[in-house]
Amino acid sequence: MGARSSQSRGPGLNKSDGHLLEYFRQAFSAGGGGTNYVPLPLPSGLTATGGVISDYLDSGPGTVYRAHIFTSSGTFDVTEIGDFGDTVEYLVVAGGGAGGSDLSSAGTSGGGGAGGYRSSVSGESSGGGGSAETALTVSTSTYTISVGGGGFATPTTGGQGSSSSISGPDITTVTSTGGGGGGWANTPPGSGTPGGSGGGGGQSPSSAGNGTANQGYNGGSNGPGGDVRGGGGGGAGGVGSPGGPSGSWPEPGGGGPGVPSGITGTTRFYAGGGSASDNATSVPSGHAGVPGGGGYGFGQYPNPNPSGSGQPGTGGGGAGNGRDFVTPSFGGNGGSGIVVVRYQIGQLTATAKATGGAISYYNGKTIHTFISSGTFVNPSSISDVEIVMVAGGGSGGTNIGGGGGAGGVLEGSSITLPATTYTIVIGAGGAGTTSGVGPTAGSFLANSGDNTTITFPGPYTWTANGGGRGGVYPTAVDGVAGGSGGGGSANTAPDTASGGATNQSPQPTPVGTLTGYGFAGGDGYSATSGSNNYQSGGGGGAGQAGVAGASDDAGKGGYGRQLPATFRDPKSAPTAADGGGLGTPASDYAGGQSGTYWIAGGGGGSADPSATAALGGAGGGGTGGQSRVAPASNATSAVQNTGSGGGGAGYNNPAGGAPANTSGSGGSGIVLIAYPS
How far is CA 612 from the centre of its chain? Predict the structure, then answer.
């Protein structure tokens, strides 16, 4: 979603001023000199909109940059060329590949490859050992930004991630290739597939996938012999580690490392490969600390954790699934990609009140936007602080599943933050799952979203609760409680699968209280046995409960909340390109219309072919799928960094020849902190 922070246009200001430059103009250019004094215009950069906007002072030479950060698809609109030229640097990271699965207790699976990584930032490099590419030369035009989703895990080899790109009328399209899927464990085993970085090889004998030149490295090969681990997925910064014999140490099969970039103003790693699974009991494969957002896997039963998915907004690969004699399961999904463009807007020296996140300025406020975990550090006390926290949304359920509940929303104002370090964790959205696979049709449930937290000494923690997952049919699983509850699945009369309750409560601490927002999911429809009227309920949103399923219509997701006025920067308004479900309660809260600053909408429920699948609620909620139809009707995922719920998946009917449908993933969360500049 777009950040709710950008430039102000006060009286007498040049229309293209940068944020930091604008602050100096407001503070110093109005007075002094004689009655005929006219302030000289300060040099300025491009005038452009789109994405999360971050203004920051580069260390060393005092160059001020503006970065536009896209974690979902949108447009970069340039309306004027400024005084610092028409050059734009970029980072384009594709979605990571999913890890391989083991649905037959056969052995080990390979890790997913990272999404392709391309960069034109001076002093940095592209993936696969490539040098920085040539920056773009832009004009007053609209450029299309496509952000690739992570690959979904399947019953076999992991799905490839989707590509990310920058295209426009006067530039050569920059495209990064989605990460390759990890090889699966079965008889015969499956090889890793090629991609931006290649997927790791599955159980022996199988091979690893190749990476793409100047984007990423190859996946790791499996080890020799039969009782071995698979190979790790390749990363932008290195080859995936090959597999090895069980019990060897250090762990083989680790994902290849990612590559660091400071293009957003904060240096972090992107495009790390997912680790392979392990054929040794309960021993994690690879290393949790491999940089770049790749997931890491675990061993055979008893398995304390499922295979990890790649982190959203990094292009990290998903981990391969370990051998499990009790409940065969999938590998981890790949992490979604990211696109960032930046350009110079000034040359000066400045000191900020605090550090952390993407920093921008709007209406006299300094705004820190966190779309990934980090720290907020203020060297002195700051008063009159406003905070918005949104947790990760839940995924939709499978098999005529209910819509996912939105992550809980916490809001507060007039807060005084003492001088200290605040640790911020951004909750991931629940990963979508696939209908109708495994030992029973209901084996694979949905996933709730993760909590978003701010922790500081005391110890005190504000916690926004993750959204509840949607319910599942035919096991008639209710929606799960969460920040907002997941919708209930359809069921045969007289039973009804209930929507999950909300559990988002106010969060008091000695420095202030944040008010909680969240609503319950809608109930599934109780249909007569043998009929086609199986409609699930919508997930709850932060502003309204999910709508219950009916005989002829699946339940819509509840609408979310509009951000407080402090964060409603007109330069960063979300558009229809942000995804389904955007709208306003005053018009059609589930109408897919262009919304304005909405977050935390519930996911729409799924429907039988005779009815219409429901749209998500205002705020970026995913749309539900339909049963017994082609994959084109798969549920959609929620918009990243809105905390919205994913759409519920339709029912898979293998006897009728229909393929499995996939539920939508929940959107990741966000934290916004504002104070007077």
Answer: 27
pLDDT digits (tens, 9 = 90+) for 216-225: 999 988 766 5
Phi, psi of 349 (to 5 degrees): -120, 130
User: Which residues 6+ apart lie within 8 Å of 650 measured at CB?
Assistant: 399, 400, 435, 606, 607, 608, 613, 624, 625, 626, 627, 628, 629, 633, 635, 661
What letter does residue 15 receive in the DSSP assignment?
T
pLDDT in tens, 306-352: 567 888 899 999 888 765 545 556 788 899 999 999 999 887 644 56
Contact 649, 399 (CB under 8 A): yes
Q: Which helix (H) or strand (E) holds 18?
A: none
Instruction: Report the alpha-carbon distance of residue 284 to residue 234 in Å, rounded.
Output: 18
pTM of structure: 0.72
Other C-beta atoms closer than 10 Å to the C-beta of 99 total 50
Tokens of 9: 């246009």
Rounded CA separation 209/195 (Å): 7
As a three-state string, the secondary structure of 329-351 is ECCCCCCCCEEEEEEEEEECCCC
Mean pLDDT to the nearest integer, 126-155: 93
Q: Token pair for residue 108?
A: 């080990």
Q: How many CB atoms lie within 10 A of CB 153?
A: 37
What values do phi and psi take at 633, rounded to 5? -95, 15
